[in-house]
Amino acid sequence: MCREGEKGMKELVIVSGKGGTGKTSISAALAYLAPRKVLVDCDVDAANFHLISGAVVSKTHSFTAGFEPVVDEKVCTQCGTCSELCRFKAIDNGVITAPLNCEGCGVCALNCPKRAINMKEKEAGQWYVSKTRFGKLIHAELGLAIENSGKLVSKVRQEAKQLAETKKLPLVIIDGPPGIGCPAIAAMSGASLALAVVEPSLSGLHDLQRLWELTRHFQLPLAVCINKATINTTNTHTIIAWCNKNEIPIVGKIPYNDVFRTALQKGKTVMEISENEVQEKILELWYNLSKLLNIAPTASIIDRLFDKVNSIKK
Amino acid sequence: MRISIASGKGGTGKTSLALLLASERPGITVIDSDVEEPNCHLFLKTEQKQEKVVTIMVPGIDNEKCSGCEVCAEACFFNAIAVVGGKAMVFDELCHSCGGCLLKCPQGAISEAEKPIGIVSSGYSTTVAGTRLMSGLLNIGVPSGVPLIKALLKEARTIEGEVIVDCPPGTSCSMVSAVKDSDYCLLVTEPTPFGRHDLALAINITQLLNLRTGVVINKNDGGDGDEAIEELCHSRGISVVAKIPYSHSFAREYSNGKISLENRTIAEDIWRQIQCVGRERKA
What we know:
The complex is a heterodimer.
Chain A: E1 10-15, H1 23-33, E2 37-41, H2 49-52, E3 56-71, H3 81-85, E4 91-92, E5 95-96, H4 107-110, E6 117-132, E7 135-142, H5 149-166, E8 171-175, H6 182-188, E9 193-198, H7 202-217, E10 222-226, H8 233-245, E11 250-253, H9 259-265, H10 277-293, H11 299-313
Helix pairs in contact in A: 1-10, 5-6, 10-11
Chain B: E1 2-6, H1 14-23, E2 29-32, H2 40-44, E3 46-61, H3 71-75, E4 81-84, E5 87-90, H4 100-104, E6 110-125, E7 132-138, H5 146-155, E8 163-166, H6 173-179, E9 184-189, H7 193-208, E10 213-220, H8 225-236, E11 239-245, H9 248-255, H10 264-282
Parallel strand pairs in B: 1-8, 1-9, 2-7, 2-8, 9-10, 10-11
Antiparallel strand pairs in B: 3-6, 4-5, 6-7
């Protein structure tokens, strides 16, 4: 089912299309269950995984990507060539009037008759290696109103993969960004398996369909977890039928429950607070995912699931 | 007056708030600028839609003229052109349509052609009488929605009266281009550590853009999560314009593509505050 990464290492990416369906809460719960892994937060412009995993930053790296023009006023004759050629209306006679419009294309610098403009590398954010309750986490913070979020996503993913290889860890869990644009593409491309966390709303179903088209476009295996399934059981059935029709495995079905919010307020995952109905569902989800990923779930999880089955039989 | 509705964190209720506000102002225009995953049409169910294909310009290489000199590849800051087998090759997905390669090619071998990236559609709602919806839909696999968002907002520039822009989540380039040039920005958050964290990032953006900003705390559950958000807003000099209580029935209606009107009075109150901002702006 899933694609094998380099040296047998697997990358599981949790995505959703629609925001707020529970990607981070579920990623963190899976991080709690999965044995030997590296964690990555690929939502670089609204990262949250560090808040639920007790992350303590152990190393900070600056991230440069793209370029910005620097004008040498002494050399500039204000001839207007740059204003004429800039398609983003970012520069006016050698003055960068709208820096947020600048895409760093270098047209002004390369075509300045006086060579008064230089392109300099741009600070685009920071990325971190942190220790969490569940293992090492690679995460990032995109600079203010910076482009290149896709590049930063690729960077954290690559760093996590390297770390997993060095430490011989078989799994990378990626908490992905919403949407289907460049950050989502960068988070998913080449991963072993994408897990879509979906809510049973018309919006959720609509956004899942577009996400599925994207995964097909990139030939990426997709599995679905329905979150908040009890909010609208009719829609939940619709999603199940739709997944069956399109041969997308449903690996989890989690009822709506306030425990997600209660746990989050404490900075914890649903697995770490007092026993609740959601925990068994997450266990099942992880068990199904581990089968798709061909990774051994820990023995304790299998024991717990068997206990559950046996208790029902009694 | 253009009112943008953004959030930082996804799923806090941008679309719900946009549609709640719209339902109190028949005849208003709603712009769905979440072009990756637009949802407003599921609620407004527009008809008599007019659609327009939005394109960007990407370079095309005339292989007869191309000498493989690599000048274009060197001029491209996005690595969107490479010379393979003695001929230049364009990678559309990386191209920013800056036209830099065109300017530099010594052979005149590059010309630009339009590449469709999505559509902008416009129509009237069948569920909220008189409400017009304009939305953008990005083609699958196209990395950046920014040119589509720009085209959508350009189309909307001529609309008179109040316009509501439902923005994409996050705080990166898509969100920035959607909130930019609005007269007032409402940031929707939820009283959780995630909501608070991402709200702080979203405020960074609206303050960088010098936007008048107000905060709506949605899904308020009577816990103490809202206090942390009020503290944040206070320290950043931003007012909390409304608190919308968490409601299971609202969530259910929403899941069926309907906006419950149980919070009408809150919507009215938000409109009053928006109009105050509008008057201040004119004064």
